[in-house]
Design brief:
The protein is an alpha/beta fold and 381 residues long. Helices cover 35% and strands 15% of the residues. Helix 6 links the parallel strand 5 and strand 6. The structure holds uridine-diphosphate-N-acetylglucosamine.
């Protein structure tokens, strides 16, 4: 069976975006629409607000009834809804974001996390293949590397045990997708390992909208800046890093979204090494390009900037962006945190033709615009 992406222009390609109403999903939908792709979002709105679709239309200039964007409100566990979706729309490729993602909650509710993330993906893959759809880009995470042996992390770095069920689901799903390809080489799989996505679309219309008190650094800092929270707790200042605070590779969510567009191009055989071969020692499995010219195999790519920033660097960058000082206090280390990680980005540059364009200051400026225009997120919009 020929790859459904073969020889198609964006205008003739339909992308199913699971979790497309969420933070990274919504930014990816914007980038896809702006390039002419047809998009079907499937999202159960368990951690998203449908106002995001009005905002996406505002950014892209799409009319409410424009068929370029469709929305199905359903969970990936809902086989009947998936059947209807694949029967209704001529889906060529899936970008799969849908999943629970709160690290702490995953420790308390492991069954919910494994059920939603792992079982849900199994249902999605089964229905997709029955409809002849065997192209998938998966939303993975640098969390699969666990405690790094050294930085920067290349894709060939060994995976270590995740310290929580959320991270385990990412690791397991990478394995499930890899085995799916091994069992049936008509599949094309891209595993995108995100580092720390932050920032927002520069329109200030969409951005991260966490429920309750944020767990992650940037939304926390932003809510201190807007006056909703008192001060940032800095989790440890005795790490073996230049200023003692944790170092991460923060990447602008719009850059990340564009990485997904690049992954679609890679699958269709557009960029990358001519024979589909991989860098020696790489963890990817990649057969030669298929006779039809499309990519075959499992492509694994880090999406990061390659730069590490400390918690204090982030606080200072956000202060520059919002023009006020951000109070913070040093607290004990958070369980499960690592000192430092940042990405080696050569592979994504060479094979996907993708690299991050925006620096930390820009991420904070855009994040601040979103937060200050929407202090309560999409709520009440
Ligand atoms: C976390 C998850 C990771 C997940 C990612 C998604 C953990 C242990 N890891 O990554 O699995 O893929 O989010 O975005 O939760 N920090 C503070 N104060 C805060 C919050 C964070 O000092 O209030 C520090 C942390 O110690 C860390 C850095 O800020 O050094 C970034 O933390 P965070 O934004 O939570 O991301 P990660 O822990 O890197």
């Amino acid at each position: 069976m020929a790859n459904r992406l073969l020889g198609k222009q964006a205008q003739d390609t339909t992308v199913l975006v699971t979790g497309g109403a969420g933070f990274i999903g919504s930014h990816t939908v914007v980038e896809l629409l702006q390039r002419g792709y047809n998009v079907v979002v499937l999202d159960d709105l368990s951690n998203a607000n449908p106002v995001v679709f009005d905002r996406i239309r505002q950014i892209t200039g799409l009319a409410a009834d424009d068929p370029q964007l469709a929305f199905v409100e359903a969970s990936i566990l809902d086989r009947a809804a998936l059947e209807r979706t694949f029967s209704t729309f001529p889906i060529d490729v899936i970008i799969h974001f849908a999943g629970f993602k709160a690290v702490g909650e995953s420790v308390e509710k492991p069954l919910e996390y494994y059920w939603n993330n792992v079982a849900g993906t199994l249902v999605l893959l089964d229905v997709a293949r029955q409809h002849g759809v065997k192209n998938i880009v998966f939303s993975s995470s640098a969390t699969v590397y666990g405690e790094p042996d050294s930085v920067p992390l290349t894709e060939a770095a060994p995976k270590h045990n995740a310290t929580n069920p959320y991270g385990q689901t990412k690791s397991m799903l990478e394995q499930i997708l890899t085995d799916t390809y091994i069992g049936d080489d008509e599949w094309n799989v891209v595993l995108l390992r995100y580092f720390n996505p932050i920032g927002a679309h520069d329109s200030g219309l969409i951005g991260e909208d966490p429920k309750g008190i944020p767990n992650n650094l940037l939304p926390y800092v932003a809510q201190v800046a807007v006056g909703k929270l008192e001060r940032v707790g800095v989790f440890g200042d005795d790490y073996p890093t230049p200023d003692g605070t944790g170092v991460r590779d923060y990447v602008h969510v719009v850059d990340l979204a564009r990485g997904h567009v690049a992954a679609l191009g890679w699958m269709a055989g557009a960029s990358g090494t001519p024979d589909g071969g991989v860098v020696a020692g790489d963890a990817s499995i990649s057969g030669p390009a298929a006779a039809d010219g499309t990519r075959r195999g499992v492509g694994i790519f880090n999406l990061g900037t390659g730069n590490g920033s400390s918690v204090i660097d982030v606080i200072h960058a956000f202060e520059r962006a919002c023009g006020q000082s951000i109070p913070y206090e040093v607290k004990p280390r958070r369980a499960g945190d690592i000192a430092e990680n940042y990405a080696a980005v050569d592979k994504a540059r060479e094979q996907l033709g993708w690299q991050a364009a925006y620096d930390l200051d820009r991420m904070c400026e855009d994040g601040w615009r979103w937060q200050s225009n929407n202090p309560n997120g999409f709520e009440g919009a």
